[in-house]
Amino acid sequence: MIRRIASFLGFDPEKPLRKKAAARVLSAMCHVGKCDGIIAAAEVALISDTIQRLTGRSFAPTEIMQMADQTRPNLEPQDYIAFGTGLRAEEKAVMIHGVLSIAISSGRIFPAEYVFVTTLAHGLGMHGTDFRRMLGLAIADMNARGA
Question: What Gene3D superfamilies does UniProt report for this protein, alphabetically (predicted)?
Fold first, then answer.
């Protein structure tokens, strides 16, 4: 019973994220990756590595490309809210962490990426302090990769 409650509250960092949550994180990462128009092979590899590291679930490059092809360029405010519907707080944090990791991978955040990331954070109901913490983690990840 205690293990079930701890798992429900998200206290098991060794356990992979739920499939539904990992798929939503991947979708958000594909959206931010496609903000500049296309997702290059290097970006697919980065998304694949990042999603595996953050969620404990792996996706094939073909799955990532299919998901990227399904992204829509002009999202409505309710679309940003829908990214987080049914997700737990720690899953939303993983989503923002992953999205920021992709957005800053070029060394800077482009305007379209900035709009996507900030609107997503707002749609998820994330506070500024949590957002800045996730940005710090994404920068630390980028530095650890040597990018």
Answer: TerB-like
Asked whether the beta carbons of 102 and 50 are under 8 A apart, the reply is yes
pLDDT tens digit sequence for 72-86: 888 999 999 999 999
Tell me the domain boundaries of the chain.
1-144
The CATH number of 1-144 is 1.10.3680.10
Question: Cα–Cα distance between 83 and 76 in angstroms, integer?
Answer: 12
Q: Would you say the pTM of this structure is higher than 0.85? A: yes
How many helices (H) and strands (E) are present in the chain, helices listed first?
8, 0
DSSP 3-state assignment of 70?
coil
Answer for the pair 29, 53: CB distance below 8 angstroms, yes or no: no
